[in-house]
Design the sequence.
């Protein structure tokens, strides 16, 4: 699990020499699940040796997984930036 702030980016790296990785997530769990592939928050194929970077625009918990490897999954917690005036 990774915790970041709204607007921050996370980078996934496929360091495999042979397998593609399919990073997939529909969006924060606080939002109703999406239906179509074109509405997915993250949907990227990482070929061996490639990277994918995604900027998170909404607060929430984003669960992601690899569609080809059931043991590859995780979560990104995106928090709203809080500015305290003094």
Sequence:
């Amino acid at each position: 699990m990774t915790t970041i702030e709204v607007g921050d980016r996370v980078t996934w790296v496929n360091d495999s020499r042979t397998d593609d990785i399919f990073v997939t997530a529909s969006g924060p769990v606080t939002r109703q699940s999406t239906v179509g592939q074109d509405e997915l928050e993250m949907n990227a194929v990482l070929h061996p040796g490639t990277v994918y970077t995604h900027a998170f625009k909404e607060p929430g918990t984003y669960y992601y997984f690899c569609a080809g490897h059931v043991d590859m999954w995780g979560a990104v917690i995106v928090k709203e930036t809080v500015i305290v005036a003094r």
Remarks:
- The first strand starts at residue 2 and ends at 5.
- The radius of gyration is 14 Å.
- The CA atoms of residues 5 and 81 lie 6 Å apart.
- The chain has no helices and seven strands.
